[in-house]
Amino acid sequence: MDRFLTTKELADLLRLKERKVYDMAAAGEVPCTRATGKLLFPRDAVDAWLAEHTETGGLAATKPRPGVVLGSHDPLIEWALRECRSGLASYFDSSRDGLERFAAGEGIATGLHLYCPDSDNWNVSFVSSMLGGQAIVLIEWAKRQRGLIVAEGNPLGIASIADLRGKKVVPRQATAGSQVLFDHLIAAAEFGTGDFVLTNPALSEADAVLAVQEGKADAAFGLGALAGPYQLDFVPLAEERFDLLVDRRSYFEPPLQSLFTFTRTKAFADKARDLSGYDVSRLGTVHFNGQ
User: Fold this and answer.
1) Looking at the domain assignment, is residue 198 inside a domain?
2) Bridging pattern class, strands 4-5 and 109-112
3) What is the dihedral sign for C-alpha 87, 229, 111, 289?
4) For the chain, what is the domain count?
């Protein structure tokens, strides 16, 4: 079965006119996504929404979410999940993949760093359009420096996007938040991907950095925190905000409480300070609260 319903399919399911479905989506009354440029409705999220709004008391209970943290990889989260012994598993792929999996009920939280050019705010428009009507909370995790990772000593003198002309660059998969931002910076610089040589996409931050370390690429658009451990140089270009989108009910359960309690310890503060380009001073700030 398709993971997403079209407007017509949802209208048929609800026995409504398509115009009414459009109105409900615009008002945030039904879970939907416009990430692809087309209005789509995650099937599992629609099922959960229907169960939540049915008048059958306890019979309307939704399927429990598994104890998995989804979305984009973050070295600080990966480390904290191990250290706090929360029992939570992780499945890190990319921001958009995590958002879709979260909407389908495949985890209790997902890491996001999706740039929103129209609002100059990270993650919010993606979350509000797709899940605004659900019991979710978007919580800041950290601000991170992102830029060009280059060989030690920067022998090619790369200092900006324009300096990538003719160079070999390793991209990320299209669903990665870093690629969303990179594409935006390229467009803003009136620069095209055809102006440099693209290698095969790297499916993780570490894979992108390794490509530079091994000489398979001249540059990667990556996290400043990963340049030092791989003995590479870093050219900062932007500060991004990495958030955790959390199921509100799961937030108050022991696993996630264990994680957030751990963020207030000295060990966590020391680790964040050791990661170059990390700012956790506003960790816990709520940037979106679903209805």
Assistant:
1) yes
2) unpaired
3) positive
4) 2
Angle at 206 between CA 202 and CA 208, to 5 degrees: 35
| Structure token pair of residue 215 | 């000489």
Say if CB 142 and CB 74 are below 8 A apart: yes
Q: Please give the residue range of the domain that contains residue 43.
A: 1-63
Question: What is the spatial distance between Cα 39 and Cα 97, in angstroms, rounded to a whole number?
Answer: 17
Residue type, 34: R
Helix intervals (H) in 132-253: 177-188, 205-213, 248-251
> What string of pLDDT tens digits covers the 291 residues of the chain?
467 888 888 888 888 888 888 888 887 788 888 766 788 888 878 877 777 666 544 433 457 899 999 999 999 999 999 999 999 999 999 999 999 999 999 999 999 999 987 666 799 989 988 887 889 999 999 999 999 999 999 999 999 999 999 999 999 998 899 998 998 888 888 887 778 888 899 999 999 999 999 999 999 999 999 999 999 999 999 999 999 999 999 999 999 999 999 999 999 999 999 999 999 999 999 999 987
Q: Are 111 and 71 in contact (CB under 8 A)?
A: yes
Kindly report the CATH number assigned to the domain that includes residue 186: 3.40.190.10
Number of neighbouring beta carbons within 10 Å of residue 210: 18
Selection from 192, 224, 234, 230 nearest residue 211 by Cα: 230
Question: Identity (one letter) of the amino acid at 14?
Answer: L
